[in-house]
Amino acid sequence: MARAATTSDAFNAVAEPRRRDILNYLATQERSVGEIVAAMHLEQPSVSKHLKVLKDVGLVEARREGRQMLYKVNATALRPLHEWTSTFERLWKHQLLRITERAEAKTEEKK
Amino acid sequence: MARAATTSDAFNAVAEPRRRDILNYLATQERSVGEIVAAMHLEQPSVSKHLKVLKDVGLVEARREGRQMLYKVNATALRPLHEWTSTFERLWKHQLLRITERAEAKTEEKK
DNA sequence: TTGACATATTCCTATATGGATATATATTGA
DNA sequence: TCAATATATATCCATATAGGAATATGTCAA
């Protein structure tokens, strides 16, 4: 088997850095494809393909306005990622605490 | 260009569902490869290969104990994912709020 | 040293990519 | 209808998988 399709879920879709760039750019406001092309350093067909992937997994929504297509983020599609990583939050907080403790112990030694 | 390597960063590494399964399994405690193989429905070589990817991006750490290799999660490597998704949290909270408002408005209409 | 156990690596293959290029489709205005 | 603009799709190609099978490496016990 090969790797799962980029359109199989949000995890695969956002693995591509350019698509995260696009989502970052759309975070502030709805944008046309042309605006996205101008902002990213990508060819128009590449942007359209990335937008298709993002749309397929529900990460963006599109509407036509005249000749333009306006895309905006559908942030709720990112919640599964946020929630999955949250389950590990407790662990890294523990870990950072231990690092802090070790640093403090060393400082104490030197006194 | 093809897709970025699975070892290029944590985003790519966790795009594979089996690797998320492994991380979930390791979240509670350190485990040997054999235990992981038993818990997942995967062949031993596949597990070893997934573990290598996770290790390459710093998501797990390994230590030898006799014949066994014990793997544990390094949760801090997941913080970039958590923080990136957090930047969109405000957006989906807005969105959910609007949904709630619409639902309430409908209820109001029916009175 | 040898055999058994635990894990890692190599080789193979089907498959899906991302960028580039060319072309198709959709919309508007004249 | 026709030209111009905006976006989408098709095609080509180099590349990196993930799983399966076979094999190599590492460790221990006798």
Describe this structure in words.
- The structure is a homodimer of 111-residue chains.
- Chain A is an alpha+beta fold and 111 residues long.
- Helix content of chain A is 59%, strand content 13%.
- Chain A is built from six helices and three strands.
- In chain A, strands 1-3-2 form a three-stranded antiparallel β-sheet.
- In chain A, a hairpin with a 2-residue loop joins strand 2 (60-65) and strand 3.
- Chain A starts with 9 loop residues before the first helix and ends with a helix.
- The mean pLDDT of chain A is 92.
- Chain A binds chain B through residues 3-4, 6, 11-12, 14-17, 20, 23-24, 27, 73-76, 78-79, 81-82, 84-89, 91-92, 95-96, and chain B through 3-4, 6, 11-12, 14-17, 20, 23-24, 27, 73-76, 78-79, 81-82, 84-89, 91-92, 95-96.
- Chain A binds a DNA duplex (30 and 30 nucleotides) through helix 4.
Briefly note the structural class of the backbone of chain A.
Answer: alpha+beta
Give me the side-by-side strand order of the main sheet of chain A: 1-3-2
Mean pLDDT of chain A: 92
**CA(first)-CA(last) distance of chain A:** 59 Å
Helix content of chain A: 55-70%
Count of alpha/pi helices of chain A: 6
| Approximate shape of chain A | elongated
Largest sheet of chain A: 3 strands, antiparallel
| DSSP strand tally of chain A | 3
Question: What is the string of helix and strand elements of chain A?
Answer: HHEHHEEHH
Low-confidence stretches of chain A: none
Oligomeric grouping of the chains? homodimer
Rounded to an integer in angstroms, the radius of gyration calculated over CA atoms of chain A is 20 Å
Biggest interface and which pair forms it?
A: A-B, 31 and 31 residues
